[in-house]
Specification:
The protein is α/β, with parallel strands linked by helices and 976 residues long. It has seven domains: 20-221, Rossmann fold; 225-238 and 352-472, Rossmann fold; 240-347, no CATH class; 474-551, no CATH class; 555-640, no CATH class; 644-813, no CATH class; 814-973, Trna Endonuclease, Chain: A, domain 1 (3-Layer(aba) Sandwich), CATH 3.40.1350.
Length: 976
C-alpha cells in the first residue's frame, strides 16, 4: 500500500509550481480575497503571457503595498523574480522597506543597485539612471506612478528614467490610485511604460488588458473600511490683532510677488518662493509666521553685514528665506517692514485657530486624534500647548527611522494626540486613530488625500472624521474655501469625479490662483474655469476606467489551493511515519530535532526548526516553499509510481480514470533589450468516469487527488485521451503566438513613431529623408524576420500520474462488496435530499465537487445548512471523515466554498454569511431506519477526533464509538 500523503504531496507540488494560486501564509498578514484575487490574476498573466505588465489603480487604502508584497514574495519563492527594483517618492522609501521586511520577510536595501531587492526614490533614480540600467531587473515597481508625467513640452526626467528602466525590466507594475488626473495624453504615456504600442486610438483596448482598478464600493463589505466624514471647512474668524497681522503679511507677500513678476528665470522663481513661504506659514500658525519673520530678519542682517551672500539659485523654502532678497539696496526698508510684522505677531494674545482646535478635540475627547501640519514650528507649538493636559506624541521628517518607529508605537499604546508633519506622516499606517485634523492645508491638494489615506484605509475599524481648518483673512484660505465649495457643487451634477482633491488642482495650478488673487483678479472665476474643464476630462476618463478596466474573475484552480492545515497534515504525518521521535510539538509550534534518514537527501537549506508553525503564531512559518516542506514533497514524489489505484468513499468518483497531464513551452525571443526567455506551462486533471451516479467527463480540480482513502501501485497505465493532450499543446502554442505578436506590435508601433518623427524633422533633403526612412523600415524588417524565426516554441507534454478510482473496500473485499457500499451511500444521500425538500428547503447538490467538504447546501426558511452525509448499515459500520470534511464541520471552509466556480454555490455562501448558518453531519442509519442530524458536530467530536486518525489522512470512527461520543440534535424515522 502507498500512503495517500503521496497524492497530497503531488497536489502541493503542482499547485505551487503550475498554478497562479497564492498561499497567503507566506506573509504575516491576513490577506483579503480581493487582494489575493489581484495577485492570482497577476501570476496568471505571467504564466499565460510570459510577462507581467500591469497598472494597479485601486482606491487609496485598499492595500496596494500589501498586494505588491504578496506578489513579490510569490515571484521570489517560485523562482520567477530574483532581482526587484521598487521606485517610490522619497518620503515612501522608509515605508516600503519597513512593510516588506515586517510583513513578508523581504529585506530590501535602499539605493544599492547591486542588491537583489532595492528601494530607491524616483528622484535618486533620475540622477543615477545609468547605474540601474546596467542591472537586470526581473520586476520593476513604480509606486505613485501618477508622478511619472508627460507634459506639453515632453516627458519629465522622472518619466524618462522610468521609461528606460521599464523597457529593460522583464515585469513591470505601476501603482496609483489617481492614474490620470484628467489628462488623456498623460494617461496614455503612463500606459506606454507597460506597452509602448499604446496610443490614443488603442487606449480603451489597453485599459482592458493593462489596468486593474477596484473602488471602495466594490470591496466595501470585505475590506470592512468604514465611512469617512469630511465636513465643511472649519473657518476660523481671526481677532482684530490677527487681522492686522495677516494684512501686513499680505502686503509683504505682494511686495515679493510684484518683484517676481518684473523679472524672469531663476530670479523670478526665487522671489516667488519667498512670497509663498510667508503666505503658507502665516496660514499655518501665529507661531510659524513669528519664527519665520525672526529667521528672515536674522538672514537680512547677515546679508547687510556681508556674512551671507545673496543668491537666486535656491531650491528649498529655507534657502529662499536665508539667501534671497528682492533689492539688496532696500534691505533697511525691508527690515523695517519685518520688524513691524514681528511686533504685530507678538501683540496677538488670543490664538483663534488654536481655540477652534480645542473645540474639535473636546468633541472627540474619547478618540485618538492626528493633527497634521506642514511645519515643525507649528508642530512644536501645538505639542507644547497641548502637552499640559493630554498624551501628545510628535513626528517629523528629521527623525531617524528608529525614532519614528518609537513615536508611532508610543502613540498606538498610550498617546491620545499625534502632531505630525507631512514629511513624517508619509508611509505611516495610522489606522489606530479615526479623527484627522488638518491644522493647515498644503497647496498641493493631493497631500490632503495622502493625509486622509494614513487613517482611512484597510485595517480601519471606526468611522473616520476629517476636519480642514482655514483662516478667513488669508489668501490661500480663501482659495481653498472656494475650491472645496465648487467641488461640492460639481459633485451634485457630475458625481464623485473629485473624490481625490489631487485631481482638482496641482500645486502649480493652486499657486497660479493665489497669484491671480494677489493681482486683484477673482479667485472664484479662476477656480471655476479650472474645475469645469477638469471635471469633464476626469469624468470621461473615469467612465473609461470603470467600464473597461480588467474584470478579475476568480480562478477556479485557486478554489482548492493547499491550506495550512493540509500542509501540516502532510509534513507531520510524514515525520510520524518515518520517525516519530524526530520532532516534538509544543504550544502549537514544532521543533524538528533531526531529519529522518529518508528525508535527508532531499533537504536543501535549513530543514531543522526550533519553533515553527503553519500559521502566524510561531516565530518561524512553514509554507510550501520552506526547505522542510520541499524535502517532504520531493520524498513523496520519489515514492509515487506513474500509475495507482485509488479507493474513495464518494459515489460520484468511485469509478473512473484520472490523468494528471503537464505541458510546458519554452521560447527565446530577440528584443531590443537582448534575448528574452519565456516559459509557459499548463497542468490539467482530466477525469473519465465509469459507472457513477453523477459527474461528466472533463477537467476536474486537483483536489480530486485528496479524496483518496487508500492508494495502491498498479502497472496499468492507459494513455490519456489524445484530444486532451492536443488541446494542451494547442493552448500553449496560442499563448506563444500571442507573445510573439505582442512583440511584433511593439516593433511596428516603434517604427511608426520613428517615421512620424522623421516627417516632422526639418533641414533634410529628399534624398536624406528617403535614406533614413529606408533604414527605419529595414530595421523593422530585420526584427520581424528574427522574431518569426524564433517563434517556434518547444512544447513537451507528459502524464504525471494515471489513477484508477475505485469504491472504498475494492482492493481488499472485491468489486461486488465495494459497489454495494457505494450504492448504500448513494441511497442515504437521496434520502437526505428528499427529507430536506419535505422541510421546504432548497437543496444544492455538491457531491460532484471534491473540494467542497460537504455533500449538500440546504437553504431553509430559518437557516442555511451545510450538510455532510454518512450512511451506516449496522453497528459494525464505520464513519469515515476526510480532513476536508472535518475542516468544514468545524466551520473553517466557508471562504473556500465561496471560491467554487458555481454561481449557485457562491450565492448560497453569500446568503449563509448574512443568515444564521450551521454545519450538520447527517447519519442515515439504514439498520434502525433513522436519520440522525448532528448540528455543529465539531463541538462534541473535537476532543476525541485525533485518536481515530488512520492512514495519516482520514479519521475512521467505529459507529459504536460514534453514538457514544455525540448525541443527535434531531432524529427522523425513515419511511419504509
Amino acid at each position: 500500500m502507498l500512503s495517500p500523503l503521496s497524492l497530497l504531496a503531488l497536489r502541493v507540488h503542482l499547485h505551487s509550481r503550475y498554478t497562479p494560486c497564492v498561499n497567503p501564509s507566506h506573509s504575516r498578514i491576513n490577506a483579503l480575497s480581493y487582494q489575493l484575487d489581484f495577485v492570482n490574476y497577476a501570476l496568471r498573466k505571467l504564466y499565460d503571457e510570459g510577462a507581467l505588465r500591469l497598472l494597479l489603480a485601486d482606491d487609496v487604502g485598499l492595500g496596494k503595498t500589501i498586494m505588491t508584497g504578496l506578489l513579490i514574495k510569490e515571484l521570489m519563492l517560485r523562482g520567477l523574480a530574483r532581482r526587484v527594483l521598487i521606485v517610490t517618492p522619497r518620503f515612501l522609501t522608509f515605508q516600503w522597506r519597513r512593510e516588506l521586511a515586517e510583513k513578508f520577510d523581504i529585506h530590501c536595501i535602499e539605493k544599492d543597485p547591486g542588491a537583489d531587492c532595492v528601494v530607491v526614490s524616483v528622484d535618486y533614480l533620475k540622477r543615477h539612471e545609468k547605474q540601474y540600467l546596467e542591472e537586470e531587473w526581473d520586476l520593476a515597481v513604480f509606486d505613485e506612478a501618477h508622478n511619472l508625467t508627460v507634459g506639453a513640452r515632453g516627458p519629465t526626467q522622472r518619466y524618462s528614467s522610468a521609461e528606460a528602466v521599464a523597457s529593460k525590466a522583464r515585469n513591470v507594475l505601476l501603482l496609483s490610485a489617481t492614474p490620470h488626473h484628467g489628462k488623456r495624453h498623460d494617461f496614455v504615456a503612463r500606459l506606454r511604460l507597460l506597452d509602448p504600442s499604446v496610443d490614443e486610438g488603442t487606449l480603451r483596448a489597453a485599459v482592458k488588458r493593462l489596468v486593474v482598478r477596484r473602488l471602495r464600493e466594490d470591496v466595501k463589505e470585505e475590506a470592512g473600511i468604514p465611512e469617512r466624514y469630511v465636513g465643511p471647512p472649519v473657518v476660523v474668524e481671526p481677532t482684530e490683532e490677527e487681522r492686522r497681522l495677516y494684512a501686513e503679511v499680505i502686503r509683504y507677500v505682494k511686495y515679493y510677488y510684484d518683484a517676481a513678476r518684473q523679472t524672469k528665470g531663476r530670479r523670478r522663481r526665487a522671489l516667488g518662493l519667498v512670497a509663498v513661504v510667508f503666505q503658507k506659514r502665516a496660514s499655518s500658525s501665529i507661531a510659524a509666521i513669528k519664527k519665520t519673520v525672526e529667521r528672515r530678519i536674522q538672514a537680512l542682517q547677515q546679508m547687510k553685514a556681508g556674512l551671507l551672500k545673496p543668491t537666486y539659485d535656491v531650491k528649498t523654502e529655507r534657502e529662499a528665506l536665508e539667501h534671497v532678497v528682492a533689492d539688496i539696496n532696500a534691505i533697511d526698508r525691508e527690515l523695517e517692514q519685518l520688524r513691524r510684522l514681528k511686533q504685530l505677531a507678538e501683540s496677538v494674545k488670543i490664538d483663534s485657530k488654536y481655540q477652534k482646535l480645542l473645540e474639535l478635540l473636546e468633541i472627540h475627547k474619547d478618540s485618538k486624534v492626528i493633527i497634521f501640519t506642514q511645519y515643525r514650528d507649528t508642530m512644536y507649538y501645538l505639542a507644547e500647548r497641548l502637552a499640559e493636559s493630554r498624551g501628545v506624541v510628535t513626528l517629523h521628517g528629521g527623525m531617524a527611522e528608529e525614532e519614528r518607529k518609537a513615536a508611532e508605537d508610543k502613540f498606538r499604546r498610550s498617546g491620545k494626540i499625534l502632531v505630525a508633519t507631512d514629511a513624517a506622516s508619509e508611509g505611516l499606517n495610522l489606522q489606530v486613530a479615526n479623527v484627522l485634523i488638518n491644522y493647515d492645508l498644503p497647496w498641493n491638494p493631493s497631500r490632503l488625500d495622502q493625509r486622509i489615506g494614513r487613517v482611512h484605509r484597510y485595517g480601519q475599524t471606526k468611522p473616520v472624521f476629517v476636519y480642514n481648518m482655514l483662516v478667513a483673512d488669508t489668501i490661500d484660505g480663501r482659495v481653498y474655501q472656494i475650491l472645496l465649495q465648487k467641488i461640492e457643487e460639481i459633485k451634485k451634477t457630475l458625481g464623485k469625479v473629485f473624490d481625490y482633491l489631487g485631481n482638482a488642482a496641482t500645486e502649480k495650478e493652486f499657486l497660479k490662483i493665489v497669484e491671480a488673487a494677489l493681482a486683484g483678479r477673482s479667485p472664484e472665476e479662476e477656480v471655476d474655469k479650472l474645475l469645469r474643464q477638469r471635471a469633464i476630462a476626469l469624468k470621461d476618463l473615469e467612465e473609461l476606467l470603470t467600464s473597461d478596466r480588467i474584470k478579475i474573475e476568480a480562478d477556479p484552480r485557486c478554489a482548492d489551493a493547499v491550506t495550512d492545515d493540509e500542509l501540516k497534515t502532510l509534513i507531520l504525518n510524514t515525520l510520524v511515519a518515518l520517525d516519530s521521535r524526530s520532532y516534538e510539538e509544543r504550544d502549537g509550534c514544532i521543533k524538528v530535532k533531526y531529519l529522518p534518514r529518508e528525508l535527508g537527501k532531499f533537504c536543501r537549506g535549513r530543514c531543522l526548526t526550533e519553533a515553527a508553525g503553519f500559521g502566524g503564531q510561531c516565530p518561524e512559518r512553514i509554507t510550501v516553499e520552506h526547505p522542510l516542506a520541499k524535502a517532504v514533497v520531493e520524498y513523496h514524489m520519489s515514492q509515487l509510481p506513474g500509475a495507482v489505484e485509488v479507493e474513495v468513499e464518494k459515489p460520484c468518483f468511485a469509478d473512473g480514470t484520472l490523468w494528471i497531464l503537464k505541458g510546458e513551452a519554452k521560447l527565446a525571443l530577440p528584443t531590443p533589450a537582448g534575448e528574452r526567455e519565456y516559459s509557459l506551462a499548463k497542468v490539467t486533471a482530466y477525469f473519465k468516469p465509469g459507472n457513477t451516479p453523477c459527474g461528466a467527463e472533463g477537467e476536474v480540480p486537483l483536489s480530486i487527488l485528496n479524496i483518496a482513502m487508500e492508494v495502491n501501485k498498479t502497472n496499468q497505465a492507459p494513455p490519456p485521451p489524445s484530444d486532451v493532450v492536443e488541446e494542451i499543446r494547442e493552448e500553449l502554442e496560442k499563448k506563444a503566438k500571442r507573445i510573439c505578436q505582442k512583440l511584433l506590435d511593439t516593433i511596428f508601433t516603434e517604427t511608426s513613431r520613428k517615421l512620424q518623427e522623421l516627417e516632422k524633422k526639418r533641414g533634410l533633403s529628399p534624398t536624406e529623408r528617403e535614406e533614413l526612412k529606408r533604414k527605419i523600415l529595414a530595421e523593422q524588417s530585420l526584427w520581424t524576420q528574427q522574431i518569426d524565426r524564433a517563434c517556434q516554441p518547444h512544447i513537451a507534454t507528459e502524464t504525471a500520474l494515471t489513477a484508477f478510482y475505485r469504491p472504498l473496500g475494492y482492493l481488499m473485499l472485491g468489486v461486488e462488496w465495494a459497489t454495494n457500499i457505494i450504492n448504500q451511500g448513494k441511497e442515504g444521500e437521496e434520502i437526505v435530499i428528499r427529507q430536506e425538500e419535505a422541510e421546504r428547503c432548497h437543496v444544492l447538490d455538491l457531491r460532484d465537487k471534491p473540494l467542497a467538504g460537504i455533500d449538500l447546501i440546504s437553504i431553509c426558511p430559518d437557516e442555511v445548512r451545510l450538510i455532510e452525509v454518512k450512511t451506516v448499515t449496522s453497528l459494525n459500520s464505520q464513519i469515515h471523515i476526510q480532513p476536508i470534511e472535518w475542516e468544514t464541520m468545524c466551520a473553517k471552509r466557508l471562504e473556500q466554498l465561496r471560491k467554487i466556480p458555481d454561481r449557485r454555490v457562491i450565492d448560497a455562501v453569500a446568503l449563509a454569511r448574512t443568515l444564521k448558518h450551521h454545519t450538520y453531519l447527517y447519519v442515515v442509519d439504514l439498520h434502525h431506519g433513522l436519520l440522525r442530524k448532528y448540528k455543529n458536530p465539531c463541538d462534541a467530536l473535537a476532543p476525541h477526533i485525533q485518536q481515530y486518525i488512520r492512514t495519516q489522512t482520514k479519521y475512521v470512527i467505529p459507529y459504536t464509538d460514534f453514538v457514544k461520543l455525540i448525541s443527535p440534535t434531531t432524529e427522523v424515522k425513515l419511511k419504509q
